[in-house]
Amino acid sequence: MKKIMSSLFCISIIILVMFIGCSKDNSGNPVDPGGGGTVSNEAKLTLNGGSFVNQAVTLSNGTSTYSTVDTATAILFSGKLNSDSLYFFVVFQGKQTGVINWNDNNGVLFYKKSSSGLNMYIGSSQGSTTISSYGSVGGKVDGSVTGKMIDATTQTEVNISGNFSSTRTPDIN
Questions:
Q1: Longest dimension (CA), the chain
Q2: What are phi and psi of 14, to 5 degrees?
């Protein structure tokens, strides 16, 4: 768990810096990344448990990157639900397609920032990520997730399921 949290933190900081440094581009999303298909840069998720009651959320700004040092891929989405800010991370070892069971090195993180504070939900044991496409830089990384996350503070279980599609950015060291 410590390794995934450390890797997630480092990679997420780098991705957030990339978001802040990039200007908004209105040049026609979704784009054709080459190799077929389009990138929606969205995660369409259903959350159930705790404060979420079969809540459908659509997050945008999907960005993925591969860390050569950690040999791991991180995918980030962000959005709003009412007045709450939501951030969703998918992290897994390698850069390949297939089914990846959650464990200490592979999983998801979900943050909900509201006026009452920050909730962090960790999915690191009861679930899986399926990567259906892993394109080259500028291409798409897409797939799905299903499993249980745990609220880091209250230990409440939250079921998560859904699909995602993101644009792959250059590798980081």
A1: 44
A2: -65, -45
Element (H, E) at 146: strand 140-151
Whether the ω angle into residue 170 lies within 30 degrees of 0, i.e. cis, is no
Question: What stretch of H or E contains 109?
Answer: strand 107-114
Nearest one of 78, 83, 103, 79 to 93, comparing CA atoms: 103
**Using the 8-state DSSP alphabet, how is residue 171 labeled?**
P
CA torsion sign for 66, 23, 40, 27 is negative
Q: How many CB atoms lie within 10 A of CB 151?
A: 18
- HSE-CB at 59 with a 13 A cutoff on CA atoms is 27
Average pLDDT, integer, range 127-131 = 98
21 membership: H or E segment, kind and range? helix 2-21
pLDDT tens for each residue of 47-85: 999 999 999 999 999 999 999 999 999 999 999 999 999
- Residue 62, C-beta contacts closer than 8 angstroms, at least 6 positions apart: 39, 40, 41, 42, 43, 75, 76, 77, 164, 165, 166, 167
